[in-house]
Amino acid sequence: MRKPLVMGNWKLNGTKESVTALVNALKEPADKAAPKADVAVCAPTVFIGLVEQLAAGSKLAYGSEDCDIHVQGAYTGENSPVMLREFGCTYAIVGHSERRDYHQETNEYVALKYQAAQQNGLIPVLCVGESEAEYDSGRTMDVVKAELQAVIDLCGIESFKNAVIAYEPIWAIGTGKTATPEVAQKVHADIRAYLATFNAEVADGVRILYGGSCNAKTAPDLFAQKDIDGGLVGGASLKAPDFTAIIEAAVANA
Ligand code: PGA
To answer: How much is the mean pLDDT over the chain?
Structure first.
């Protein structure tokens, strides 16, 4: 059985004050959920030390929104997976569509980030998903397969034993246009079927989160789907009551 995971992606948001209030408010819901669902927040790197201190002693896990392919050296502005691990990160999101788009990250480059995160003790959360034009022209799985294939080529199918996949249709991110549970379930099942062509056991075990306007209203029906193992939540993860309701939806469907 796959244990659901609810993960917040704060993106470029927060202040010391709001981060403190949010983490303090999420510790209890995370502890309560822990037997049935994992809860994590991915924070801007500058706040990770603060999250580490605040989350200490609770079941609230945390991670970064990105990580570099290098562990150290002359790479101004980057964040090393080793450093993120030292600050207690469990997860690192890699290949979010905003990074692919605004920072021209290719499938191959994202695979290097996935590899660097995993080799240094972080669980990579690999984001995949198609644009609106690709969705409209029925090319969702072509895009998603290529994104997965780059990782399979570099790291092997077995690497998904220690990774998370997040299916995030780009047209649903921050738009309020959530994919219907049926549309999302179909893609999740197709992702699992594709991975199963390489290794059925790995495909069955890997957690596939849904992301894209996942909120307190949409989460219950999404999480009721067979192949949806939780959510990667942007906007709704910034408000403790909303995120707590999403956590509760995951627990209810665990
Ligand atoms: P959203 O973002 O929940 O605000 O749509 C999700 C994401 O980009 O991870």
So the answer is: 97
The H or E element spanning position 19 is helix 16-33
Closest Cα partner for 28 from 180, 248, 220? 248
Distance CA 157, CA 23 (A): 34
* Residues 67-86: b if buried by 16+ CB within 10 A, e if exposed: bbbeeeeeeeeebbbbbbbe
pTM (2 d.p.): 0.98
> Distance (Å, rounded) from C-alpha 120 to C-alpha 116?
6
CA atoms within 13 Å, Cβ hemisphere of 30 = 23
Encoded tokens for 184: 């999302």
Q: Which of 249, 61, 240 is nearest to 164 (CA)?
A: 61
Rounded to a whole number of angstroms, the CA Rg of the chain reads 17
Residues with CB under 6 A from ligand 1: 9, 168, 173-174, 211-214, 232-236
Question: Is residue 249 within 8 Å of 223, Cβ to Cβ?
Answer: yes
Question: What is the distance in A from the centroid of ligand 1 to the CA of 241?
Answer: 17
**Contact status, residue 94 vs residue 151, Cβ threshold 8 Å:** no
Summarised one tens digit per residue, pLDDT across range 33-50 is 999 999 999 999 999 999
Name the active-site residue from 96, 98, 147, 248: 96
Dist. CA 122–CA 128, nearest whole Å: 18
CA of 122 to the centre of ligand 1 (A): 21
